[in-house]
Amino acid sequence: LLLIVSIASSAATIGAGFSGMWYDVARSGEGLQLEILDANNALVEWFTYDEQGKQRWLQGVGQIKHDPAGDSIDFPQMYVTHGGKFGSGFDPKEVKVQPVGSVSLSFNDCASGTFHYAAFGQSQTLPITRLTQAMGAGCQPINGIPGQPVMDYAGQSGSWYNATRSGEGFALQWLASGQAIVTWYTYDTQGNQVWLLGVGREQDGAIVFDQMAITAGAHFGTAFDPVNVKKVDWGTLTLRIDCHGGAAHYASKQSAFGTGDITLTRLTSLQQPGCPTIKPKLSDLYNITWDEIPIAEGSPASPNYISAESIADDGTIAGRRGGHLVLWHLNTQTWEDVPLQLRASPVAISPDGSTVIATEEHDSLVHVVLWQRLIGWQRLPGDMLKQSGYSAVSRNFQYIAGTGEDASGNFPAWVLPMGGVQQLLPKTDAVSLLTPFAVANDGKIAIGVTLRFPTNFPVRVAARWDSNGVPAIMHSPQDEELAVASACDANCSIVFGAGLYTYDPKHAHPGEAWLLKNDATLEYLGALPDAPVTARSYAVTDATPDGSMAVGAYQAYPPSTSYPAAAVSRAFIWTQATGILSVRSLIDELDIGDDDWDVINAVRITSDGQKILLGGLHRLDRYPLGYARAVVLKLAPKSASN
Predict the structure, then answer these.
(1) 154 SS3 class
(2) Which 3-state string (H, E, C) describes 326-368?
(3) What is d(CA 206, CA 185) in angstroms, rounded to the nearest whole number?
């Protein structure tokens, strides 16, 4: 924390995402704290032990290099210090700096690499594995990781010290998990190096570390044995900092260290993220194009009216016209009509474009049907009910879920594997009418809604079923009942929905869309400035298989000129990296397409997350019921550094 010096620059390929803690899994109890400072330079601290089993820490600044064999960082001089004394007796003039050797790091990828050192008469080459991921630094999917938001304080990660106490300091990293980890590089009262390590969380604007650990027992180098590492609770540490400075308060359980306060200023910043952290725009991550799909003007009563309802990875679109399936073929730029009288409910096309699932309506009865080019239409094999209508298809198109009617007049929900037999889902008093809106790739989880009748009007409440139990109402971590669960990732370990069953306009996130993870993490997707605050302002319609992107619709003001007094539907896109944004804002920012729709919904998203199908209506005086529009938003990922 006193060795930041000017170093000649060179081309760099290692990116900011390599910042974090690294260690050899066979040597738990010691490790490396790496900070990527900029495109060319890095800082490393090695927290370890001396030959007598006491704590030791080494520090060095290195240059990032690249060659065809892989990325590397060379630290030609590693230093140890001694002489400083803990607390009020600290005098920077007493700190002695000693060069002791060198370190080099090379990486296979963002998760593993190699650590080579030559110091104190020893030399070893050891495998290293990532131990921590710095929040917002990089080395993550382009859309971020669901449930791991990058907070505006993520840029506080880096090194902090007191300018009058040069020779000791704090290395802080906000972790992707939302926790913070700090290493305090300091001394005991005899001038020997000490490092204290703690994991904490944000509490009322401070970072609180309830237990700072001090270790001893292991030996340096080849003699290291993790069994010998002994850990003791040293005490507590509280940091109150902003992007530039702040203070530390400590309270040790060991009388030799006592309690005290230290004023802090920033010494180093990570290359990424900035402080305060600003979310990227979707256009920072992708090149975005607007591809209008030609649909002739008409009305819902006319054969020209086409509803675009599903999209395959190759851009094939499935919809309905005059009650028939229609397919848009990208290569020929034509709509194909596939006759069969279908119910007025959406159709679904498989990711490879080979299969369509729909609901047939014939002689007042409905049944799930599938279409494949070689065999045409057929009733879904395994459908055992008197009537069945589908409402969900798994991402891999191996499971279908819906509701139906049995011979006794009951209306069960069901899950049906392709080539298998319907499994009727059990009911409970709390979940008597389950409508599945999404089903997992293994068919073991379905999510959707059930109905309650607190008055004469039904109200929806989110429900979940899995193969190990009965359907259950879904709750937030605060035990609030959720309103609508409507989409999920491939395994339904991340569920998307919107609203709470009991609407409270004073709630911190009234009516907003949310995601809920299996570990009970709940995150609200955010509010848009043109959305009114109501119980049902947002609806999530689809999500990518990894849950990193979700799309949907929201009610918006101002409305169209056709209906100046009413809210209109608009499309939104959400990623963990960007937060929620409206398609309207993309149109304004990028000058693509237009906002001249009375209804515009983000209908579906392809499995690779690179095509979003927009569908909706535009009303004209001569067509009072409107004519349909369809657009494919194409997202081409921009190259990103690690």
Answers:
(1) helix
(2) EEEECCCCEEEEECCCECCCCCEECCCCCEEEEEEEECCEEEE
(3) 20
Helices (runs of H) and strands (runs of E) counted in the chain: 2, 44
- The Cβ-side half-sphere exposure at 109, using a 13 Å CA radius, reads 2
CA-closest candidate to residue 281, choices 595, 607, 597, 573: 573
Please tell me whether residue 317 adopts helix, strand or coil conformation.
strand
Q: 204: helix, coil or strand?
A: coil
What region does 364 belong to: left with phi over 0, alpha with psi -120 to 50, or beta? left
CA distance 495 to 540: 10
- Predicted TM-score of the model (pTM): 0.90
CA distances from 15 to 76, 172, 527 (A): 20, 19, 32
Q: Which two tokens stand for residue 532?
A: 């009114």
Element (H, E) at 284: helix 282-285
In angstroms, the Cα distances linking 631 to 70, 227, 515, 558, 614 are: 43, 61, 26, 22, 5
167 vs 164: CA distance, rounded Å:
9
Q: What is the pLDDT of residue 302?
A: 59
Q: Which helix (H) or strand (E) holds 587?
A: helix 583-590
CA–CA distance, 173 with 603 (Å, rounded to integer):
39
Query: Tokens at residue 321, please?
Result: 């016209």
The CA–CA distances, whole Å, from 431 to 193, 372, 475, 499 equal 62, 35, 14, 18
State pLDDT tens for residues 584-605. 999 999 999 998 888 899 999 9
User: Are 124 and 222 in contact, with CB atoms under 8 Å apart?
Assistant: yes
Give residue 299's pLDDT.
Answer: 54
User: What pairs with residue 233 in β-bridges?
Assistant: 213
DSSP state of 320: E
- C-alpha dist (Å) from residue 194 to 48, 262, 341, 389, 465: 10, 17, 77, 67, 52
pLDDT, tens digit, 9 for 90 and up, residues 58-88: 999 999 987 777 789 999 999 999 999 999 9
The torsion of the CA quartet 97, 100, 101, 104, rounded to 10 degrees, works out to -50
Q: How many CB atoms lie within 10 A of CB 88?
A: 7
Which stretches of the chain drop beneath a pLDDT of 50? Answer: 1-12, 564-565, 622-624
- What span, in angstroms and rounded, lies between the C-alpha atoms of 548 and 282? 13
Instruction: Encode pLDDT of 343-390 as tens digits.
Output: 888 999 999 999 999 999 888 789 999 999 999 999 998 988 999 999
Contact of 221 with 122, CB cutoff 8 Å: yes
Q: Cα–Cα distances in Å, from 74 out to 64, 102, 330, 435?
A: 7, 8, 51, 59
